[in-house]
Each structure stands twice: as C-alpha cells, then as structure tokens.
Write the structure tokens for this entry.
Amino acid sequence: FNTNYDRTKTWTTSLNYSYSFTTKPVTPFKKVKFMRKSKWWAIIRDMNFYLTPKNVAFSSDVMRNYNERQIRNNIVPDYEFAPVYIKQFNWNRTYYLAWDLTKKLKFSFDANNRSMFQEGDGAVDKEDAIGYQSFKDTIRDQLRTFGSAMDYSHNYTFKYTLPLDKIPATNWMSANITWKGSYNWQRGPLAQPEYG
C-alpha cells in the first residue's frame, strides 16, 4: 500500500479591533466653594466617575483545514479504497473591556470563546453542485449561532485604592483591595452529548 494522493488545504482569516477612549472624569463637587476651603472636604470634593470605558477590544480568528487522501491498492489493483476526509473548522473569539469607574476603582474583563463548525461526511467539491450547496447551507446555519461552543472562559478584576490620601489624618498611608474571579466551561465530547 502507498499513497495515491494526499491533498491539504488551509484557510485562515483574522480580524482585530481595539479602541481607547480619552475622556475626562466627571467631578460634580469640584467647584463647590465651601469644600475648597478645607482639606477635610477633599474626600467628597474629589469624588469622580467616568462615563465611558477606558478600552474595548475584540479579535476573531477563523481557521479551516481540509485534508483528502486516498491509499493506492497495490495488492488488488482493480479495487479502489474510498478516500478519507479530515476536516477542522474553528472560530476563536476574544473580548476585552477595561473601565476605570473612578480614578480609584478600576475594572477589567476578558473572555475567550472557541467554537467549531461541524461539516458533513464526504468531499467538499465545487463541481458537485448539490453536495457543495449542502455544505454552504450547513455552515450558514451554524454561523447564525456562532458555531458550536467548545470552550469558554472569562476573567474579571476589580481594583480599589482606598482614598486615604484624601484624609489629612491618613494621607501618609496607602492601601488597595483587589477582587478577582474567573469562569471556565468546556463542552463534553460531541460523540457523547449526554455529558454536556
């Protein structure tokens, strides 16, 4: 036995987007006159918040591998082995958000999602009009649901710097609090849907 043919095709595409906002914080008490006369009012006078995120980002990577191979039958030349098809069609997406809710309270969030598209058995051949149309319809239907999710994870972080510098009695100290969390979900084997 040896190889009659072995054809591999790979398609990749990616899209990346990132935007950073340049906004000034809203400080509703900054111009209150009586609060400007004493340092003890600083904790209220300097209260602030941002109306927009600091940064948003998104990336999308699509990769499709298609392999078709056939083994030559050298023992019984009149018998031809059926070709073997190996297909892989993945779509990876990442999301990122950073938002300074105030100058001292900062939030960040990132998520990753890996999806796959399930293709039917057999060859994908443009010369086979019916089979190729079936392939396109299958992918189009799955695009509406962003493919079959295989793996999803996200992480988030809240970081808060205590406003000790705004109080005259504690302005020589500093302290911060960080709270982090994460989540991960993985799909069970496609051949065993009862497991997730």
In short: The chain has a mean pLDDT of 90.
